[in-house]
Amino acid sequence: MSTTTVETISKPNIGVFTNPEHKLWIEETTPNLNALKEKKGEDLPEGWVTVAIKSRYNGCENMKFLSTPPVDGLLRRYVNHPAIWCHKIGNMSYENGALLEPLSVALAGMERSGVALGDSVLICGAGPIGLITLLCCQAAGACPITITDVDEGRLQVASKLCPRVKTYKVNTSLKPPESAEEIVKTANGIRPAIALECTGVESSVSNAIYSVKFGGKVFVIGVGKPEMSLPFMRLSTQEIDLQFQYRYCNTWPRAIRLVEDGVIDMKQLVTHRFDLEDAIKAFETAGDIKSGAIKVQIQSEVDT
Fold it and tell me: Do 108 and 251 meet the contact criterion of CB atoms below 8 Å apart?
């Protein structure tokens, strides 16, 4: 099963690295250029593994997940990867292919939260994950959909992606019960049945909890700090389900179909593009709220 599709290889394999202090640097990485040119994948192990196709493999205690220490990530020009975990994307652009990962995050949240046709939905956070979740909710027929963020520019992007979405700019001076009332007013008084929390920020999670209706659900997609304080009695007295997500599983084939058939169109999300050699500048742009960045892509030019 060891194969290679690269005929002419001359560019060195470089990668983007970080440490616990979030310092970034670029250096040569594996597989190195000589191995690629001389062995052409002949030294790779057979791409087999025992797997239950419908298992929740994201809960595996021995998971090796790219970009999670000590496993290096995909910000490299070349990478060896088990063939069984690769998915064909046909004629899809690499740009769309890269967006399948955040789409997978949103799809996992959609499936486990149970968003259905006609559900009133609140999405907290209009970053890349929140905006892709918005596209999924729109495709699923959720109504009404409300999205929140602290940045007006991102809410404007949300309105372009989904003209019928209702937007609320979070007033950080308000306490969660007060913010929730404003959110409900934005949705014409309709409390959401499901809140999809895409920030992981403690105050935003609390906003979602105070917003949903009796018997509703708050599904946390975002990643937050190790411990946080939440309104327990609100959850208890309103019988609100609080549910969480860890990565995703079994999402890639569906994600590919949705993009290929035009059900989900994420092209507008890519606002900035950088070469691999300029990856550090790309991270700086993504972290600068003044840049207006939504999704910043790092592109690797390879020999063919």
Answer: yes
- The answer to whether residues 300 and 77 touch, using CB atoms and an 8 Å cutoff, is yes
Tokens of 107: 């799809």
In sign, the C-alpha dihedral spanning 87, 133, 283, 268 is positive
Sort strands 241-244 and 217-220 into parallel, antiparallel or unpaired: parallel
Which amino acid is located at 152 in the chain? E
Q: Are strands 166-169 and 24-28 parallel, antiparallel or unpaired?
A: unpaired
* pLDDT (tens digit per residue) in 54-77: 467 677 777 777 777 888 888 888
Give CA–CA dist 248/140, Å, rounded.
19
pTM, to two decimals: 0.82
Contacts of residue 250, defined as CB under 8 A and 6 or more positions apart, other chains included, come to: 53, 54
- Sign of the Cα pseudo-torsion (54, 59, 64, 67, in order): positive
| Residue 60 neighbours by CB under 8 Å, 6+ apart | none
Q: Where are the beta strands (DSSP E) in the chain?
A: 14-18, 24-28, 121-124, 145-149, 166-169, 194-197, 217-220, 241-244, 270-275, 295-299
Q: How many residues does the chain have?
A: 304
Q: What does the pLDDT look like over 93-142, one tens digit per residue?
A: 999 999 999 999 999 999 999 999 999 999 999 999 999 999 999 999 99
